[in-house]
């Protein structure tokens, strides 16, 4: 279900008001919420969800690809000049 349809169905039972809130316009609590969001984003100690098998496989595959794509550095290798 897309968002406009979901909003339309919710509006049958609820009053919905959407309002654009630009950042940094002296809205009470905005500076505090921005600071907390930035602190949370920068906090390396926040535990993340465990990686799935596919995420681990993808990271490993990418790492292996970068290792294999390093060209040889021999003086006789044509691509190293």
UniProtKB/TrEMBL annotation:
Record-level Gene Ontology MF annotations: nucleic acid binding; RNA-DNA hybrid ribonuclease activity
Chain ranges of the RNase H type-1 domain: 1-42
Gene3D superfamilies assigned: Ribonuclease H-like superfamily/Ribonuclease H
Domain of life: Eukaryota
Protein name (record): RNase H type-1 domain-containing protein
């Amino acid at each position: 279900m897309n968002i406009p349809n979901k909003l339309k169905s919710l509006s049958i039972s609820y009053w919905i008001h959407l309002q654009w809130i630009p950042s940094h316009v002296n809205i009470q609590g905005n500076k505090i919420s921005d600071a907390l969001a930035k602190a949370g984003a920068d906090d390396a100690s926040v535990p993340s969800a465990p990686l799935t098998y596919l995420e681990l496989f993808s990271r490993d595959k990418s790492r292996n690809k970068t290792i294999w794509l390093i060209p040889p550095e021999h003086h006789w290798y044509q691509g190293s000049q």
